[in-house]
């Protein structure tokens, strides 16, 4: 089960370089058909400095995170983990050419009882800071660890 002593735990920061081609691929994958995601002229006409990222693009950035183990870091059994949802709070534009530094931490852990028994909700937050030192996004996600089967 999750180690409640890990509330406040911080992962080492990592960097994401936002690439125009990756934005276009992601837009295609999520069927974001607005030309601002693929055409620099359309993006600039819409007021962006370059091609912006679609709303959930930051989830892809987690693939560039250092390969740490949630099992080791938090004492979580991944065989009993479900995704519990996520909230994106955009504080500024993220566009092609940006270099983002991601700071991740465990915000809270909560024990609950569900229809199948105990579960632990682990709330994590990633803060994305661009190359100008501006916080442009906060991504809060909940991971649910189900209790052992009885």
TrEMBL record:
CDD domains assigned: R_hydratase_like
InterPro entries: FAS1-like_DH_region, HadA-like, HotDog_dom_sf
Domain FAS1-like dehydratase: 7-137
Protein name in UniProt: MaoC family dehydratase
Annotated source species: Actinomadura chibensis
């Amino acid at each position: 089960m999750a180690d409640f002593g890990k509330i406040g735990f911080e992962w080492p920061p990592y960097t994401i370089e936002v690439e125009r081609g990756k934005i276009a691929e992601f837009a295609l994958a999520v069927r974001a058909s607005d030309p601002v995601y693929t055409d620099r002229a359309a993006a600039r006409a819409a007021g962006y400095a370059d091609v912006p990222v679609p709303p959930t693009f930051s989830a892809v950035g987690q693939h560039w995170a250092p390969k740490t183990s949630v099992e080791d870091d938090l004492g979580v059994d991944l065989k009993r983990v479900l995704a519990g949802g996520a909230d994106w709070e955009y504080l500024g534009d993220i566009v092609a050419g940006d270099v983002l530094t991601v700071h991740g931490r465990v915000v809270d852990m909560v024990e609950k009882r569900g229809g199948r028994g105990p579960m632990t909700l682990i709330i994590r937050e990633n803060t994305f800071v661009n190359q100008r030192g501006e916080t442009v996004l906060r991504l809060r996600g909940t991971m649910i660890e189900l209790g052992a089967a009885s």
